Amino acid sequence: MALFNGLLAQISDRGTVDPTFLPHVNGLEEALQSARHEDCAASGLSDVRIKAFCDLWIGTEWVVTVISQGVNQSTSGADKVNAILICHLASGRIGQPRCGPFSVIGQTDAMGGREVGGLSNMLACHLDLENPNHRAAVRDFWQVPAVPEPPGLKAVDMFRAVGDGRNKAFWIVHANPAVSIPDAAAVRQAIADCPFVVVTDITARTDTARLADVNLPATAWSEKNGTVTNSVRTISRQRAVLPPPKDVKPDWEIMAEVGRRMGYGAAMDYDSPAGTFGEYAALFGIAGTFGRDFHISGLSELSDAAHNAFEPVRWPVSAHRTGGRFFADGQVFHADGRARMVPVKAKAPAALLTTEAPFRFNTGRLRDQWHIMTRTALSSRLSCHLPEPFVDIHPDDARRVGVKAAEFVVVKNDHGQAILRARITADVQRGDLFAPIDWTGETAPSARVDDLVAPHVDPASGQPASKASTVAAHKFEAGWYGFAVATSQMHLRWD
């Protein structure tokens, strides 16, 4: 926020605010006033680098700002995104070719998940849960008595509710929260104590699946049929390339069967992915009447054969429009058609450095692994890149804590601890430690990094601050080291 507030002030001071776009925005003066009171030094960058950044951004005709998890995973992630959006709006670099903010997140089909209402605070088709007209439309379409008015709990709060007994049952689909959610040790305990836990996954060998009362085996990526949506709104048909193992079902079939057994036979009477897609597309015929951007009612009458032959298409797809570029006319999806600039200010992380926890702990992912290694760890070639858990530490900090290269380091705080191999490198700043999240209880039981991540979240998005916990670090005094090599599969016991 400090960097982009400084950029916004420079856009104004250099006279590069786009006058043709100003009629399409509200709140520029308030945003500018806030930005001018920002201290850009809070970014940690030198004045020379800040000026070079502003020169490049303002002096380049076509600018795309890629927003990824380093921005989102913060207690002020929503405001950071706002700071970026404001700069694009003020300079008119939005809705035009080769310009705009571009969100790139860490999950496949994340766009598709939002389209079908896969968040606790939204309805399908980009409809708003808090809007009574939207709730009524979905209620009538599904022919249900009511649609809940209050939003559901977001991830961190959901596990708190499980832990304190408010949630008595839990169905986890293709996720491993016993490892991947902040304060993971508390999450594991909450799942273990929950009266009834169901896990749908491709394997029962995960930290979470081992805690389940019921495991429902589901198809993997190469066994799935359906559609996915990428980050540029293109819906593509995914076709299975492998047959599923015996008794393994796709997600839609598992959920439909559970619904039928609960007594909702007519509502869950699907017999193919085309049926679920057709219903989903038909709802857009209603959603479109509310002026939503996402609209695919033109695909609601696809037959099984047409669904199978589906070619990639960029939404919206309706009787009036297919594809195209949003915001080129300056209109956005508010009642008055104008974008809203929100004044933002840089804030310190929720977890403050102390003498007991003097390091800032940044977590992330590895190049050759997919999140928590459920599948990628099965590939010896991928695991050759970085074969064991590690922590990056600056040479000055390594000397301070008495750690040499390749020695073990204990990283700990009030939430938990991990034992990690030291990589001494100037790729991290002094006072910062970096560790990847990928290893689990299945692959490295003493190196579960999310045990150390504090459950602080952004108040608007609910996104956890996965990159700003505070920790202590010291050398692990090992009694001995061992390294095993085997020519056949080893079956290890940890008890």
| Cα shape | globular
**Please, what is the average pLDDT?**
93
Strand content: 15-25%
Oligomer state equals single chain
Largest sheet: 6 strands, mixed, barrel
Distance between the termini: 48 Å
Helical amount? 25-40%
Kindly state the number of beta strands. 16
* Rg for CA atoms: 25 Å
Give your account of this protein's structure.
The chain is α/β, with parallel strands linked by helices and 495 residues long. Helices cover 27% and strands 15% of the residues. The chain has 15 helices and 16 strands. The strands form five sheets. The chain has a six-stranded mixed barrel with strand order 11-15-12-14-13-16. Strands 4-5-6 form a three-stranded parallel beta sheet, with no helix packed on it. The chain has a three-stranded antiparallel beta sheet with strand order 7-8-9. Helix 1 (2-13) packs parallel to helix 5 and helix 8 packs across helix 10 (184-193). The model has no long low-confidence stretch (mean pLDDT 93).
Summarize the structure.
The protein has 495 residues and is α/β, with parallel strands linked by helices. 27% of the residues lie in helices and 15% in strands.
